[in-house]
Design a protein that fits this description.
single chain; alpha+beta; q64v53_bacfr protein fold; 25% helix; WGR domain-containing protein
């Protein structure tokens, strides 16, 4: 999969991406935060290999001002669920898998970003506390938080227990709490 982005003068971000699956090349284009449009064509068609297709795709979209997202641009969103023990319960493990699946789909299909992993364990809180953290890379902080809140609520994935924190990729600093379902403003990674 390859995803390119273009920032418009009005602040909107466009995305163009492709991937190959089940004998087809899939192109997915749109405005970040929307589902966009998808076209499918038979693979390999007139192309010898994926490298040739990738060169053509890059040429078409770079000529229109698109570029690959850099490690300097965007945000890491941390979705945090409280846990009762260091290793978590069966429910916590189920939640990790189901929430990750829902977030992968939601962020991917809206051109917002990707799930970048998770961890479970003790937080830095001086009072012993445990958490499940799911990390997401997104290109738009506000739209990313909105999408995460919406999909976790719609999928009934313990939305009433989450906290969402954010940090800019270009600043390797602290996470800042952006949302707390319980209105608790204390946050530790």
């Amino acid at each position: 999969m390859l995803t390119l982005y273009r920032k418009e003068t009005d602040g909107k971000i466009l995305y163009a991406e492709y991937w190959i699956e089940e004998g087809q090349v899939v192109e997915h284009l749109g405005t970040v935060g929307t589902y966009g449009t998808t076209t499918r064509t038979d693979w390999p068609g007139s192309y010898r290999d994926e490298a040739e297709y990738k060169r053509d795709f890059l040429t078409r979209f770079i000529d229109q001002g698109y570029e690959e997202a850099s490690n300097q641009y965007g945000y890491v969103l941390l979705i945090q669920y409280p846990m009762k023990s260091m290793s978590g319960s069966k429910r916590d493990l189920w939640l990790k898998d189901k929430a990750s699946e829902a977030l992968i789909s939601e962020l991917g299909w809206k051109g917002l970003g990707v799930v970048d992993g998770h961890d479970m364990g003790k937080t830095a809180n001086p009072v012993t506390a445990f958490a499940l953290n799911i990390y997401c890379y997104v290109v738009d902080e506000k739209l990313g938080i909105q999408a995460i809140k919406r999909v976790l609520k719609e999928m009934r994935l313990d939305y009433t227990r989450i906290k969402i924190a954010s940090r800019e990729l270009e600043n390797d600093g602290e996470y800042l709490l952006k949302y707390s379902a319980k209105k608790d403003q204390e946050f530790y990674v």
